[in-house]
Design goal:
45% helix; 22% strand; 657 residues; alpha/beta
Length: 657
């Protein structure tokens, strides 16, 4: 029993560890399939949070949008806005005393001198305008492709690249290649350029942004990162990068706030920050480009706008129908990508960073989940174990949700569930296979004692042979070979075994034919009973008929054995019907389905007093079979262990004609 328990424990542990390896292998071998599942599961948390008034993140309206929408085009009656329009908006926003203006555009080439001149002049005068550039983002292992580019553009990038402090290996960070920048005359008067380039996850959804990329021997910031660092008064020399861990903005100070402090931004190995989306596109404040453009026509309106936008960080972008600058994010399938830059700045400004739990931390959690499953598997049967495992997996999802909503921590969702699923399936499969093996062993054991029909009934309903004993009237048969001990002393052990196997097999077949139960083999003796575990109202008649056939069969065997020089086999049979105790009896290590009681002892005594090649039955057995089988009285005998004389009868065995 202890050996089986230890073996089951060892196999269960191996199955659980195998489930862990299998789940991780799925992500290692098929990342394009399983990683998007996890991303999308986490997206559901973003969506749920955005739809809940209690859970939705607080919005800091320091960051706002000025949008060029369909209504802008209709109100201005001009689909193609020229650079004079943008110049006027830049002048107006400067007059409204905004902190920063971020134009989500790349003015890559000159248009005409007049319009370009207006935009350059407005940008220079405002002193807080940022424009975009584009890089081809490459990983270190990818072959870097370069194009000559414009010399002035290259010179500008070389002059404005950032030299930050790096502590660690920066080889995994993206490389900025093949730049496309806002034309140099405009770029040189702007507050700065930042790259607009984005990287989406495997499923095409934008969830994170690289804040810095390697450029030549230094770094270049993203559009939003450059602007927010300037807003917080953090120059490049106060930025510390720990690749795969954090970017620290030292002595960051928000305008109008008292004390400076370090802002620590968690990043992955490629320098990506997970964007903590404040909600869908409509969650932030939005103003119409046309309203800002025309605000300067009315002095009172300008004063109102100044009161509204004073100190704000303004993101200007085109979001009209047909704009290609849209994509899926966790909170929206068609999200203007300028909103990513706004959300990046908002995340840094509010320090509401999302931290993705590390691989080691996640592995510890998965092992803890598997430990719970192991305990459940050792203590519960299959159905409660399955429900317990499902409950444990559900509890993990609840815990992961709490961590996300209240702790700003992103736990892996799919892999632990995959681990739990594999563990559940493998353990249930093992149990099923093990139980089937045990049933097969049990079935074979039963087949040695019960007829096939009874075995099927027992396997379908094990309660038929319940472990407890109970009283019941049965008919018990004992048989014994005459003088077998004397004959066996002249035979080899193998020959004895061969003869007994032949004899017992023939006798067992007859017992099973009449649906009897083989209780035990006692040397050369045989004990069987009728009437249990399958109820048989005619158990006495079945037993006597089986005894008659057994005697006839033994006489056939005798002829065969004598011809080949073996012993002349003869048997005695004693039969008694009475109340016995029947059931599984024995110790916890070894149980035997048997019958006990005085009626059993009586059957054994009748066998020892029966005539050779004869069948002796008791009075009760005689009363039950006399109308069906002829008997003849043998008078009264006194048997060992019983004080009173008893009436006995013989069942004649007629030779077949």
């Amino acid at each position: 029993m202890t050996i089986n328990k230890n073996r089951n424990l060892q196999i269960t542990i191996l199955l659980i560890l195998g489930s862990l390896v299998a789940a991780h292998s799925c992500f290692w071998l098929l990342p394009g399939v399983f990683e998007p599942w996890n991303y999308q599961a986490v997206d559901r948390l973003f969506s749920f949070r955005s739809s809940s008034e209690q859970l939705v993140p607080a919005y800091d309206d320091t960051i706002v949008h000025v949008d060029l929408t369909n209504s802008t085009i209709q109100r201005l009656n001009n689909f193609y806005l020229n650079r004079s329009h943008y110049a006027q908006v830049a002048r107006n926003l400067a007059a409204m005393n905004v902190s920063e203006q971020l134009y989500d555009f790349i003015f890559a080439a000159r248009s005409n001198d007049k319009e370009d001149g207006e935009l350059i002049e407005a940008t220079k005068k405002a002193g807080n305008v940022y424009y975009g550039l584009a890089f081809e983002l490459l990983k270190q292992e990818e072959k870097q492709r370069t194009s000559p580019g414009n010399t002035k553009d290259i010179d500008y990038l070389d002059m404005t690249k950032w030299h930050v402090t790096v502590k660690g290996d920066s080889k995994a960070l993206y490389i900025g290649s093949n730049p496309l920048i806002t034309f140099s005359a405009l770029a040189s008067v702007s507050k700065g350029l930042g790259y607009l380039s984005l990287e989406f996850d495997r499923d095409g959804v934008f969830r994170r942004m690289p804040l810095l990329v390697c450029y030549k021997d230094a770094f270049y910031p993203s559009f939003s990162f450059r602007a927010i660092c300037d807003y917080l008064g953090v120059p490049p020399e106060k930025i510390v990068v720990r690749p795969g861990k954090t970017i620290t903005l030292k002595d960051a100070k928000r305008p109008g706030k008292a004390a400076a402090h370090d802002i620590i931004i968690p990043i992955d190995r490629w320098g990506n920050m997970v964007i903590n989306f404040v909600g869908p596109w409509e969650r932030m404040k939005h103003y119409n480009f046309a309203d800002v453009l025309r605000a300067s026509d009315d002095r009172d309106e300008m004063e109102m706008w100044e009161e509204e936008l004073n100190g704000k960080i303004v993101v200007v972008s085109q979001v009209s129908t047909g704009s290609s600058d849209v994509g899926p994010v966790p909170t929206d399938t068609q999200f203007p990508l300028s909103g990513l830059h706004a959300n990046v700045m908002h995340t840094i400004l509010t320090e509401s960073f999302l931290r993705e739990i590390s691989y080691r931390e996640m592995l510890f959690i998965e092992l803890l989940l598997l430990l719970i499953i192991l305990v459940l598997s050792l203590r519960l049967s299959s159905v409660p174990f399955s429900l317990g495992t499902i409950a444990a997996a559900g509890s993990y999802i609840g815990l992961a949700s709490v961590f996300f909503f209240y702790g700003q921590v992103i736990l892996h969702l799919v892999r632990p569930l995959l681990v739990a699923t594999f563990a559940l399936i493998s353990i249930l499969a093992y149990r099923y296979i093990n139980e089937e093996k045990q049933k097969e062993v049990l079935r074979r054991t039963f087949e040695a004692y019960f007829p096939p029909l009874i075995v099927k009934k027992i396997m379908a309903n094990p309660k038929m042979i319940a472990s407890g004993g109970y009283k019941k009237e049965l008919t018990v048969l004992f048989s014994d070979i005459k003088n077998f001990t004397g004959y066996s002393s002249t035979m080899t052990p193998d020959h004895i075994q061969e003869l007994l196997n032949e004899y017992f097999e023939a006798m067992t077949d007859i017992v099973f034919k009449y649906q009897g139960t083989v209780d035990k083999f006692i040397g050369d003796g045989l004990m069987v009973f009728f009437g249990d575990p399958d109820p048989q109202p005619d158990h006495a008649l079945r037993c006597v008929r089986a005894a008659v056939e057994m005697q006839k069969k033994v006489r056939e065997i005798k002829v065969t054995w004598e011809k080949r020089g073996d012993m002349p086999i003869q048997i005695r049979i004693g039969i008694n019907t009475g109340t016995v105790v029947v059931g599984n009896m024995g110790s916890a290590r070894r149980l035997s389905y048997t019958v006990l009681g005085a009626a059993v002892n009586m059957a054994q005594r009748l066998e020892s007093n029966a005539p050779v090649e004869g069948i002796m039955v008791s009075q009760r057995t005689h009363d039950l079979v006399k109308d069906h089988i002829p008997t003849r009285p043998l008078g009264q005998i006194q048997v060992k262990g019983f004080e009173e004389f008893i009436d006995v009868y013989e069942v004649p065995v007629e030779e077949d004609s």
